[in-house]
Amino acid sequence: MSKSFIRRSAVQFLLTSLGILLIGSLPYLFFNMKSQLEILEMIDQKTLSNTLFLYDTIVFNVNAYVNQLIHTIEYLINGNMLEYYARGRNLPLFPTLWDAYRLSMSYLVGSLIVSVCAGIVLTMVTMVFPKQTRAYIKGIFFLVESLPDIFVILLAQLGVIWLFKQTDLLLFNVTNGFNDQAIFLPIFILSLLPSVYIYKYLLLSFEEEENQLYVELAKGKGINRYRILLHHMFRNAMVSLFYHFKGVFLFALANLLMLELIFDMNGIMMFIYLHGAVNTEMVTLSLYMIFLPTFVFFTLIEWFIERWTARQEGVL
Length: 316
Fold this sequence. Notes:
The protein has helices at 3-24, 27-30, 33-44, 62-77, 96-128, 131-145, 149-167, 184-210, 213-220, 225-263, 268-275, 280-312, and strands at residues 83-86, 89-92. By secondary structure, the protein is mainly alpha-helical. The chain folds into two domains: 26-95, no CATH class; 97-278, MetI-like fold. It has a two-stranded antiparallel ribbon with strand order 1-2. A hairpin with a 2-residue loop joins strand 1 and strand 2 (89-92). It is globular and about 80 Å long. The relative contact order is 0.13.
């Protein structure tokens, strides 16, 4: 592992970690959170029922923000004694947060696996057709890509329900799964748009590889077209896909909140949505739980690709 790679990865890790820490406590910088939390506690205890008489404005409170940053760091170091405020009292954060995290990551990872597989299959099938036919296929997928995310999610969900009502054919289970949650339908819906993006990136990479000299040379040697496609072009195109995959991951993560809202899931995004406003430390911890494993994964893959590329070029 080269020193430049280690240095670059360390800088990315430190900057992202610092960014998560600073973003998590932002409400304390712009709002008088201490007063708002006191009022919320009075409402929960039913000693106050109406807050229309209150008037709060955006402030710039650096001292409260710095104090909250220090408190958040202490909160993260505290270990198993973590709590969050809900329903008028402090509740243990674990295992509630861990169960929500595990549920959400199961859907997210499952949808990304489905997206990659679907994107590869669609690309392979498309590359078999002539270039003119490919243009029509790309036009259809471009139309799907331009649709709003929430529209695609709702349309897919309604489509499965409509098909079930018309034919009694249930394509995916809707009510049973992880802790009585749906399994296949959310994964299928969450994978739709990422599949389109992966397909688009892969197809562009394949078409670029198709014009490379080594492909013409392989054709001149009489190598089978499918062997060129699967063995040579596929390998290089997958390397190119990796550098777009971080964007696909963030896109799927953003859609995860909409999915959990629509399916009423008890995932980590819903947990942040319901309790994050008054538990900024919990939000910071949740973001770290998502960031750390994904950073390790992408860093290891990037290291493997750089090492493989160096070997191909004869550097190693």
